[in-house]
Design goal:
This protein has about 525 residues and is of the alpha/beta class. Helix content is about 60%, strand content about 5%. It has 19 helices and five strands. Strand 4 and strand 5 form a beta hairpin. The chain starts with a helix and ends in a 17-residue tail after the last strand.
């Protein structure tokens, strides 16, 4: 009897250690997936496109200096890219792609941490793999913009809110909840819709009856206010510019039905990238390759609060977002809800795959996810870069970015001895110059100081400036003034693609030299060796 007890203990230890080894292997597989995913997107972004996404260029422009706000958006994405520019010697296409896809990966890691609290280790990884196939977490995350950067902070907010409710006596969860919610707010204002889901869930579950929750919410709120306060001060000092921009954008009247149908159609397409994997799992289960565990109850526990939590944080932001065009008739951009689908993979895994054999489900879900992600990657670069290059189409990622920057740099140094420090142009044109010229100049956007708080007319007088715009029939007033002040001006053209699908881009330029006796230029930097 004693020997049998010893043998049972020994078998239990072996079984537990075997489970631990398997678990570690699964974790390594998940993080290998993240690493290969991140490296693949970054390398192809470096090697194939001639120019980055439009939103990436906007962040290149804004990240020139650390600001507490911009005329269109809150500051955190630009501040993060500003820090990366310092570390890596200036902006580049690869750096913006790396930063963007890193946001997607970090968001998925937080979803994994959340899933582990609701599911077994293998099922949690399956949930993450399903989530990764939503378009907002793969090819839509190629753009480094406020939607993409909101992914990790929204995912972290979901994780810390759930963790805080699960263990309300633990102060650190409430502190971190306030921190990530504050960071999410200074990333994109749409986080208020996610916070609304927290409020609705708290009311529904009568969480106010727990004094520990009330104390925690007070702590989180205090940290939240502290984090956003510098941005709020900036807003007050700058006439609430982002809200003016948002108001102007949302008050454009459109057909309400067409807005909603277009929005819903777009969401269906962007969620449909999960279908090959989900269909594959279903098919394998029908063929008996993935076992259905009939010993498990087919009914979900009635006291399972996770279903209420997941549905609340998934549906509330989406419903509130769709209510805005219904009430106002304003537009609803599909990308604005990028971070709202983060709980979807957990919901699908927990409530549709809960009877599947975990080992087999993870094995085949992994293979199907790897295959789908590879196809998404290949198709994206074929459609966005390779095919347009082959047929000579004037596609965004084939814009002659380096050629434009080289031409500007050449003209400037033929006319001036000092470094090029200020470019006056639009976002896209000037941003592509900033992307390549070193030392990196700064951009005065369309000669509008309110949109470019890092540079003003006094700096132009001290440093001089290169003025650049596409040639048009009528020169805008802001540029006409500059051309009238120019010491020298001219024209050049660039080929964007080739006939018959390409374009010839005609540019006009002017050089404004520094004014004699003006203060020293603060933007002059030493060139990189």
């Amino acid at each position: 009897m004693k020997n049998q007890t010893i043998m049972d203990d020994l078998l239990r230890v072996i079984r537990d250690n075997s489970s631990s080894i398997t678990s570690n292997k699964d974790k390594r597989g998940l993080f290998a997936f993240f690493a290969i995913y991140l490296i693949s997107w970054t390398l192809l972004a470096i090697l194939l496109p001639l120019a980055p996404e439009l939103d990436n260029i906007e962040q290149v422009v804004w990240s020139q200096s650390w600001q507490w706000g911009y005329h269109k958006h809150p500051p955190l994405p630009s501040a993060l890219l500003h820090a990366l520019n310092i570390l890596f010697g200036g902006p580049s296409m690869g750096l913006t792609a790396l930063a963007a896809q890193s946001c997607s990966v970090i968001g998925l890691i937080y979803i994994w941490l959340l899933a582990k609290q609701m599911l077994s280790g293998k099922m949690a990884i399956t949930a993450v793999l399903i989530t990764s196939l939503i378009a907002y977490h793969n090819f839509r995350a190629f753009a480094f913009n406020h939607n993409t950067v909101s992914l990790p902070f929204t995912a972290a907010a979901l994780y810390y809110f759930y963790s805080a409710l699960k263990n309300p006596a633990r102060i650190s969860n409430w502190l971190l909840l306030g921190l990530v919610c504050g960071l999410a707010m200074v990333t994109k204002y749409s986080i208020v819709l996610v916070l609304a889901s927290f409020f609705i869930y708290s009311i529904w579950q009568r969480l106010w009856t727990d004094s520990r929750v009330l104390r925690g919410l007070l702590i989180s709120s205090s940290v939240f206010v502290l984090v956003i306060s510098p941005h709020v001060v900036w807003l007050a000092e700058n006439n609430w510019l982002p809200f003016t921009y948002l108001h102007d954008k949302l008050t454009v009247s459109e057909n309400r039905l067409s807005i909603l149908t277009g929005f819903l159609g777009s969401q269906i397409i962007r969620l449909s990238f999960m279908l090959p994997m989900l269909f594959g799992v279903w098919y394998l289960s029908k063929k008996g390759v993935i076992k259905i565990m009939t010993t498990k109850s087919s009914k979900l526990p009635e006291d399972d609060h996770d279903l209420g939590f997941l549905l609340t944080v998934l549906l509330t932001p989406l419903i509130l977002a769709m209510m805005m065009p219904v009430l106002t008739g304003g537009p609803l951009n599909s990308n604005w809800v990028s971070a709202f689908f983060l709980p979807a993979g957990i919901l699908i895994t927990k409530y549709f795959f809960h009877r599947f054999d975990e080992d087999q489900l993870l094995k085949y879900a992994s293979w199907l996810t790897w295959l789908t992600q590879a196809l998404i990657l290949i198709f994206f670069f074929l459609a966005a870069v390779t095919y347009p290059t082959w047929v000579g189409s004037a596609a965004r990622l084939n814009f002659p970015s380096q050629a434009l920057a080289n031409k500007v740099d050449q003209i400037w140094h033929e006319q001036q001895k000092q470094p090029l420090t200020i470019v006056i142009s639009d976002y896209w044109t000037g941003g592509n110059v900033l992307l390549h010229v070193r030392p990196e100049p700064t951009l005065l956007i369309d000669n509008i100081p309110e949109e470019s708080p890092w540079v003003n007319t006094h700096d132009v007088a001290a440093c001089g400036a290169f003025v650049l715009m596409l040639k048009t029939a009528t020169t805008p007033e802001a540029y006409a003034i500059l051309f009238s002040q120019a010491a020298v001006k001219g024209e050049f053209s660039l080929n964007w693609g080739h006939p018959p699908r390409g374009k010839v881009l005609p540019y006009v330029w002017a050089i404004i030299p520094p004014i004699p006796g003006a203060p020293a230029c603060q933007f002059i930097k030493l060139a990189d060796n």
